Structure formats: C-alpha cells, structure tokens
Amino acid sequence: xxxxxxxxxxxxxxxxxxxxxxxxxxxxxxxxxxxxxxxxxxxxxxxxxxxxxxxxxxxxxxxxxxxxxxxxxxxxxxxxxxxxxxxxxxxxxxxxxxxxxxxxxxxxxxxxxxxxxxxxxxxxxxxxxxxxxxxxxxxxxxxxxxxxxxxxxxxxxxxxxxxxxxxxxxxxxxxxxxxxxxxxxxxxxxxxxxxxxxxxxxxxxxxxxxxxxxxxxxxxxxxxxxxxxxxxxxxxxxxxxxxxxxxxxxxxxxxxxxxxxxxxxxxxxxxxxxxxxxxxxxxxxxxxxxxxxxxxxxxxxxxxxxxxxxxxxxxxxxxxxxxxxxxxxxxxxxxxxxxxxxxxxxxxxxxxxxxxxxxxxxxxxxxxxxxxxxxxxxxxxxxxxxxxxxxxxxxxxxxxxxxxxxxxxxxxxxxxxxxxxxxxxxxxxxxxxxxxxxxxxxxxxxxxxxxx
Amino acid sequence: xxxxxxxxxxxxxxxxxxxxxxxxxxxxxxxxxxxxxxxxxxxxxxxxxxxxxxxxxxxxxxxxxxxxxxxxxxxxxxxxxxxxxxxxxxxxxxxxxxxxxxxxxxxxxxxxxxxxxxxxxxxxxxxxxxxxxxxxxxxxxxxxxxxxxxxxxxxxxxxxxxxxxxxxxxxxxxxxxxxxxxxxxxxxxxxxxxxxxxxxxxxxxxxxxxxxxxxxxxxxxxxxxxxxxxxxxxxxxxxxxxxxxxxxxxxxxxxxxxxxxxxxxxxxxxxxxxxxxxxxxxxxxxxxxxxxxxxxxxxxxxxxxxxxxxxxxxxxxxxxxxxxxxxxxxxxxxxxxxxxxxxxxxxxxxxxxxxxxxxxxxxxxxxxxxxxxxxxxxxxxxxxxxxxxxxxxxxxxxxxxxxxxxxxxxxxxxxxxxxxxxxxxxxxxxxxxxxxxxxxxxxxxxxxxxxxxxxxxxxxxxxxxxxxxxxxxxxxxxxxxxxxxxxxxxxxxxxxxxxxxxxxxxxxxxxxxxxxxxxxxxxx
Lengths: 452, 524
Description:
The complex is a heterodimer of chains A (452) and B (524). With 452 residues, chain A is α+β, with helices and mostly antiparallel strands. Helix content of chain A is 36%, strand content 27%. The longest helix of chain A is centred in the middle third of the chain and has 32 residues, at 142-173. Chain B is mostly helical. A two-stranded antiparallel ribbon of chain B has the order 1-2. In chain B, strand 1 and strand 2 (296-299) form a beta hairpin. In chain B, helix 11 runs antiparallel to helix 12 and helix 20 runs parallel beside helix 22.
C-alpha cells in the first residue's frame, strides 16, 4: 500500500471531533520513536498519563492498535500518526518496526489475506438492516445447512404471503387513507417481515412511510414502491418455478445474506477497475458505504458495499480516481452489481480521467436495462461527460451536452460547492442515481478528481 | 420523464389507488403490444388469485406491478429548453497545492486554526495561486469583512460569477473593495451608485491620485450622509497626510459625535495640525523643570475643560476617578511631542527619566499614546528603553520602531520583565513578532512550564493562543521539541502551574505554531 493522501486519512476518521483532536497531535512534540515501513506506521504518543501510548497502524488492513482507553476506532493517536505519515512529516522515520509491532503484524498476516472478515446483508439499495453484520459462518455441515436454508425459505415465503395480502388491503382502503396512519402501521408490517427473516423487505416497507411525505407526486411514487414490493412477494410465492438468477435476486431483495464463500466461488472478473465514486449513507445505526467500480477493459460495473458501526471506519484502498487491478467476485443474481474484491494485483494507482457515459440518456438507458432484469435495483452509478451543474439554493440540477436535465439530490452546501467546482463549464460528473435524481459525489475537472 | 406507451393507464391506476378500490373499483387497463399481452395475462389471472369481494384491489396491485416495472425500466431523461448557464471566465493561475488545500480545510473546519485564514490568503496571494474552486463557497462564508478583498482576488473571476447567484456574497461581485478604472471613471463612480461602490471608488482614486480624491471628497462632504462621512474617514486613515488636515479640522464641527471623534483621533496623528498647536498651548504651560541639583518635573493639572477642548475631542468625563489627571492625559496625548523637547530644552530620554523620577506617571502615559499616534521613533525608543509605558500601552509604542530594532527591544523586554509582564507589549498591536522576540518568548515559556507555581501563569496561559498566531513560525520545530521536554520535566501540577496546568494549552500552542510553520514552508 502506498502512502495515503491527507484527504484519505481524514476519510477514515469516525467523526469530526476525532479530526480536531488528532490534528493537535500532529506536531512532533508529543511523539517519540515514530517510524514507518512499506506496511505499517508506529510511534509512542505522550498523553496526560505517565506512560506514553503505544500506537501502530497496519496500512494493509487497515487495522489500528493503541494502548489508550478511547472507544473511537481509529483513535485520535492512530489518526494523528497516519496524518503525519501522509503528510511526510520528518518525525516519522523510515525504519524497521519494533519487536512488539512486528509481532502484531505477523499475527495479523493471516487475517488480511481474506477479502472480508464480516458478511453484511446484501441489499441492492443499501437499505442495511440492523442485522447487517452476520457472524462469520461456522464450518457448515452440508445437511444441517440445507435444512436451515429450507426452513428460512419457508418462513420468508410465509411472510411474503402476508405482505401480499397487506398490500392488497392497502390498495382497497386507498393510499389517501394510508396517509392518516401512524408510523406504527408501517413499522408493524416491517417488523413482521424481520421476524420472517426477510429484513430487506422489512426495511422497504418501513421506507414507504417516508415516500408518503415526499411531496408532490407522492401517490405515483408510493404506488411504484408498493408495486415493487408486490413483485417481490409474488416472486416468493412461486420461487421454485423461477430461474436460479431470479431466485437469487429475490433472496437479495428479501435481505437474506450471501455467505462470502458462496460469493467467492463465482468466477473472477479481472480488470483494471476504476473507482468512480463513493457514497456513505447511514441507516438504522449502520453506516453503509458504496464504492462504484467501472472496468476499464470490460466496461462492466460493480459496487463494493461495506458496512461499519458508528465509531468505526471503512477500508481506504478504493479511493475515487484510483484504478485497481483486481479480480472481483460477483454476487449471485440476474444483473448483480454487488461485488467483492477477491484478488488484488498490485497497488491502486491514479487513473486519470474517469470512464463515462456521453449523456444522461445513456445513463438512463444503461440503468433501464438492468432494472428490466432486476426491478429491485435502485441505485445506479452516474458518470457523465460534459455535464454542467446549474441552479441556486434549493433548486439544483445538472444539464448534459444536449440539454437533458435532471434534478440533483444535494443540500445547498454541496450544491454551491459543485457549482463552484464547475464554474458553469462542463465537467465529468460522478454520482449515484437515486429516485429519479442524481446525488453528486465528485467531479473530474481541470485534470483532477474533486471528491464532494 | 414520463415514458409514453401506457396510454394514461398508470394515471388511472394511481387515481384508483389513492381513493381505494372500495370506493373506486379498478379494472386492469388495456395497452398495445407486449405490455398489452402481459396485462391481459394479469386480467385473466387476477380473479383466481384474489378472493373476489375486494373490488379488484388484487387486480390493481398486479397491473400496477407490471406497469411500474415497465415504466421504471423505460425511464429516460427529457430535454429541457432552458439554456445552459453562462460559464465563469477562465482563470489561468494554478490551483493551490493539495497540501495547501488540506491546510485550508483544517482552517475552515477546525476552530483552533480558524484565525489563520487571513495568513493563508496572504501566503497564497504571494505564491500566485488561486483558491481550489471546491472551497470558494466555504471561504466566502468564513472570511471576515476585512479580508474579503483578499478572498475575492484569490477566487478570481469565479468569485464574481458565484456572487451573481446569491445575495449573501453580493460583496464579491464588486471584487470586495477593488473598483478599477481611470481617475475620471472613478470620479464618475463616486457620483452615483451604492455606498459600498462609491467608497471603493474613493479608495481606488486615493491610491491613484490622492490630491484629486481629497478635492472630490471635500466637494460633496457637506451633503454626504453620516454613515458615508464616517466610512470616508476610514478610507482616509491608511494614507493620512498633512494635506488631509483642512477636512478633518472642519469635521471637528460635524453634526455627528462619532464623526467628530474619528476626526480628532486622525488629527492626533498629524502633529503639525492646528489641533496639535492648540493642544501644545494647553499642555506645555502645565509642565516645568524645577530644582537646582536634583532636577524634577512639576506637573500642574488642568483646571477645567472648556468648549474648545471638547471640540478637540477631549472627553470631560473620566472613565473612573481622577478627573483632572484624565484631562491632563488627553491633553498630553494630543500634544506634538516636539513641543516638549523645544519647551523644556531636553532630549526625549532625559525627559522620560525625569518624569519617571518625579511624579510624572500621567505624563509618561500621555507621551506613550502620543508616540504611537505620531509615529515618533525617538520618543518610542526613549520610552521603551526606560520600560516606561504601562504594559497595556507598550504594544502600539513598539509598533512605531523599525522591525529589527523593535524585535531586539521586545526580546530584551521579555527577558527583563518576564512573559506575564510582556503580554501587553507583545499583543498590543497587530504586527508580527520576529525571531529574537519569539526565541525570548519560547525560552520564558519553557521556564514557566518547569516552575512549580510561577506568578502570572494564568495570564500567560490565556494569551498562548494569541501568541501562537503572531510569533515567528520558523522556530516551530525547535520550540515544539523544547516545550515537549519542558512538559516532561514539569512538576505534576495544580491550579497555578505544572504539567496538568499547561498540558492542553501548550499542546495547542505548539500545534498552531507547527501548523503555521508547515504553511509557510508549503508556500515558500
């Protein structure tokens, strides 16, 4: 792993206060015996106590170790050490790790070879349920596993049957009537689906309450969501008659996680993967990060979804604008976007201008063909050339080279920043398609990647 | 964004769904082509699936499911006739480096470094780079009015382009303060327009042709509103010259008190003014040298404050006790310093020594104010050499001296009086503190940190933040290391000193100094 930029280190911070605290420690003053090699950074940081804290960071992990009592992960000491290292501070000297750090790295050596330690719920839309992080599966006894899977499928199918009746009742009573229902109305059905081991479907039901309050045109949008849920339930009602890929889509949409060994069993897609954009959303106490990849040779798309509990951070190697030569393992499904990075061939390198569609119509067409085979696919990467951000407070949009226009899903702060980045000139806009709008996440302008 | 081809079927379904099929029974709609075939299959299957007495809600659900998938997969983006925005003019300057940008992000996002924004802008301007466009909005929101012109200059044409879209940044549209043009154009700009723009034009004209700017201001002075009169005096202040005296003398009779006071304050910096002569006539007769062997200064206090004195800006009401001493102080502060050397026939150093050995504290205080206002180096030197000014008044006196000499004197002052008694001197003016002073401050701080209960510890600790912004950042590497060692060696600490007392503030002090050091290195 090469050195990170300061921006990349800052992206690791669990919160803004950690950054403030860490920056204060980026002077050589409190540090002694700080060093680094091509894998790790370490040092001792004087705190308020008598003994300095022993800090070490494994940049391959990433993993952090510090003798301080902080609950933050990484703590301010680890963050400060990384900041100094990223900034090439003379206080961090190239050397060999002290014995205890060496031993820690050796113990970790086994752990970094596998691509994932935890397996979260795969949802096509990032609706991470609270149960997102499943424990690593014990070595499976095939018969026990098959029996357990059959039991779960039965429970989900029963929950889906109930869902279908509930949806029909909803339409008999009317969406207008539903508007007067308390959140509990939606939550109760959502909870029953969670009980039926379909947390993904449960999260979709709970989100209906938000669609109700989404302003003009809500009945059409709500009916669309209801229809997609019904399609999911209808699919489950005749699961056995469907092709394997569709069954996989239904399993994913219901929120039944895929064990990583099953994902890793799929054939590798080796390519030079360009990191187009990263987005982080927080849902139900879990932060989900989606990293969109575009294969420079194959033109295929993929998304790496990581989950982190509050106070924890994501991996850092997939930074927008970088290219990683890697073999990806794709999740099952008819047009699955979600992937795992299975094999790496070398370090990520700066990738130059991003691959992109020529106009917004092409983005919509590419998305449409995936949605046609997987209707539960909601988010889609956007990378479009010659896009001009436009607007002012509260009314942001993007215009392509032919005058097609889409609303942007941004707050005013990010809106002004994007407008300023472009200055009214065409840029390559990077982002995510989300409910008929584009959430901008970055821009390629003046030969550099600006992450918003 | 509406895909065609469903012949309004979706809208019908939404209408039924909204009121509910109990009240508005729904039928599965028709359509052409493959969509129609699929819908027909739904129609055929619906009654079998649904219970029957639901007025078609199951059918509606099934039809909506087909149509929703159809519409979603066929979603396109329509062309909007609204034209593209006019782009901002090109800016050929390079963008500030990633490291400089990271530092700027820290300044904008972290209160500890927030006061360094003007320094960053200044260094960037010197390096000939422009602001990274992604931070321009944040900088515009964060920058104080005094540094807007610097921010606008660094933003380049982009700043004005953004400003056209939001009221809050209107100031950036005029380029902060910079209005350019020929002298004739600037005169025309003064004749009409917003106050802000008129004053910007006046500022530019004063730089280009001060005489013409003076005549222009004088020609409309009587008809200007009070706010403009007051602001115009701020335009005059940075380039104040004896030629400005007539206008200021007139302004002593202004209708508005704040204009009168501002004019008097400006006149105090012009020793050859009529006001200066009047002050000398009031002050000099009050002071005389007496004694044969042991000379001393005898000072009489003014008896009263008359209207003429009030007109000259003398405030008859003392801020607290000692009315007549307060009058004396003000009269002396307004008196040209050379009047004393002429009247008493002695050089400044001798007069300062005499005043200190007599009962001349008020005199010394007045002289200190006068030396700062009149920029009189001889007097400033004499006062500082004798450590005469009160700590709080010493800073502006120091600012009068050339940087090199001021640096030496301030360092000497810190060594002699300690850090706590030097804070007024060090922080009393806006100037940067140079190398010798910085070394002396760091040495004094190291001693304080190591001492068990040093006097003045609270005052010094409270001032560390301000000091870190003003000291010479070049010392940061050694200073930070020495302070770290001092903290190690410090006694455990209590509320008056020691490690626990200093740890946090000295840490922040070192961090800010170090941050500024890297900033200067980056822009070098």
